[in-house]
Design a protein that fits this description.
Largest interface: A-B, 30 and 21 residues
Largest sheet of chain A: 8 strands, mixed
Structural class of chain B: mainly alpha
Radius of gyration of chain A: 22 Å
Number of helices of chain A: 15
Strand content of chain B: under 5%
CATH class of the largest domain in chain B: Mainly Alpha
Strand content of chain A: 15-25%
Number of strands of chain A: 12
Number of domains of chain B: 2
Oligomer: heterodimer
Shape of chain A: globular
CATH topology of the largest domain in chain B: MetI-like fold
Distance between the termini of chain B: 9 Å
Number of helices of chain B: 13
CATH architecture of the largest domain in chain B: Orthogonal Bundle
Distance between the termini of chain A: 28 Å
Structural class of chain A: alpha/beta
Largest sheet of chain B: 2 strands, antiparallel
Chain lengths: 384, 339
Amino acid sequence: MAHGEPDETGDAMMAPDAPPFAGMTSAAPSDLLEVRDLHIHFPTADGLVKAVDGLSFHLDRGQTLGIVGESGSGKSVTSLGILGLHEGTNARITGEIWLDGEELVSTSTARIRQLRGNKVSMIFQDPLSSLHPYYSVGDQIMEAYRIHNDVSKNAARTHTIELLDRVGIPQAATRVDDYPHQFSGGMRQRVMIAMALSCDPELLIADEPTTALDVTVQAQILDLISELQAEFGSAVIIITHDLGVVAELADDVLVMYAGKAVEYGSADDIFAQPEHPYTWGLLGSMPRLDREREERLIPIKGTPPSLINVPSGCAFHPRCAYADRTGGRSTDEVPPLRETADGHLSACHLTISERHKTWTADIKPLVEGTSPFDASQEPGGGVT
Amino acid sequence: MPQAVIAFIVRRLIVTVFLLLVVSLITFGIFFLIPRLAGQSTYQLAEQYVGRNPTPQTIRLIERKLGFDQPLIVQYGRFIKGIVVGAHYNAGPDKTYCPPPCFGYSFRDQQPVWPVMMSDLPVTASLAFGAAVLWLVGGTAIGVLSALRRGSFFDRAAMGIALAGVSLPIFFTGLIALELFSFHWPIFPNIQFVPLSQNPYLWARNLVLPWVTLAFLYAALYARLTRAGMLETMGEDYIRTARAKGLPERKVIVKHGLRAALTPIVTIFGMDLGLLLGGAVLTEFTFSLHGLGLFTVLAIQNNDLPEILGVVMLAAFFVVIANLIVDILYAVVDPRVRY
């Protein structure tokens, strides 16, 4: 079962009529990035951690994909996998990652190093710890630029000052020699963005770029990312647990749970009609300014599952309010990721009509904050 | 920025002078105040400053000559004055002059302490600096390799040897080294100190065994420190950033990892070196090298208080200066240190 499912989900998403193992021999995809049936497992003393377990998605040039999920759902592990940054760890990676016609899982470390920071670059969560405390920000950006471009120190410096100026750092020409600790959190993240953009990447991965920042700065950073995306024409993967961030930036959304995709589709579709109870839960636990203040956030019951002993069947079933409606299938069978509408996929045992009904009747009024009901009055209402 | 650095250095220098004064005060207190507090009379004190088999008259004379009968603060003033301008210990025909810096006059050896210490210092300095280079290079290199190959055979072997290095006393490893490489296979026979200026080859050859013996102890310590530091820094977020840039792994390790891991080691290195310059007692004793360590041992054996006082002051001076250099170096190495 565990081995059968990922293939099915992969096929369902990418090429519905492709034979098994088609991925191994199929030609390079036309999209900029295509991930096929990616597994990233870590053997540990306690058991095998299945951080990513059969994940597939794709991303076209200039587009933005939001990957959403709680901590430990495999978002960051996936993004590090695309950059080959599990190298040197005990990670076991199978599947395929195609970037611009090149397969990355099987490629040499030398080749992936040429791509890192060049064709694919990354912005990390905490800009203070992600910048080296002993080197000036200018040196660190110049270093990133000069690895991949054979230019003089002076040219790199000029380029760096332009970049810093472009990401909105005042007096870039003097601040280029300052050290990370001399910048504020938001400015540091701007430095990280400048570094990531130094080689004009085709794919930019932003791993929770605003989580460590002040709320007032978060919006500025997100605006900057989308502005620069338009200017540089990069595709962007934005990893977050904040659906608000996704709503603002993403064209497509991938919702991850326990290393698997549970819902995948265009942002418009997913926000208009989310089809997975977990997505409902994420929407319900999102604070909104337009909601009544008396209304409480609806947290998702329980904690994210262990990635060593993933719950049987649907990994979400211990936390799902609707698990009892599946006639026991939720504990026995892994729900495949199925296309329910054009380009909208979800993995749930409930029938699509039942889910649409539940969403429209019970969840939508709650999460939109216009509900006449109270969460306590409506038994099936809260995604609790 | 450079102006800030200069201001910082000047401020540190002023603090250092104060620190040296405090050190001298404490040292002075240990030698002159504590015996008094312990109930020793100035006569008994003077007895220890006189040469062998003194007559009571000589002791009385010395007691007055050294000013033990005067208040302690006056004595301290004389002590400091001696360091700055020198001191006369005898009026009359046999004039005993102790030129500055006068750290005391050994009545046992009939000579001022300072020149003797200065003639012994090159031995200790040669020993300490040579060993320091060895242990710093060797220890950090082993530490880095161990960290990068954590859990490998190399790592376990290196850390096992390091444990032995930390645990085995120098008089043991030194004697084994002497037995093997000086007597059994006389590769380094007849070890004695030859000044560098006189014959650089013999200087180095005769010091190889002491260097290695001393460095073994410290290299073991530094290997463990470096390993722990590297393991910590290589897990930092900025290392991931460096890799995400596409830097070759060697550059990630050296430029980003080692740079950060070495900074705390600079501190410890400075202190260790400062401490060693005051005398590498066990090594000097084992290899019969007449440096400050052996000087100290002999001074203690002979109960020669002026010599002990002098060498304690000198050792404290080295530690304080090493501290100063480390502080300045730290400000240069770590930009987060405020000037």
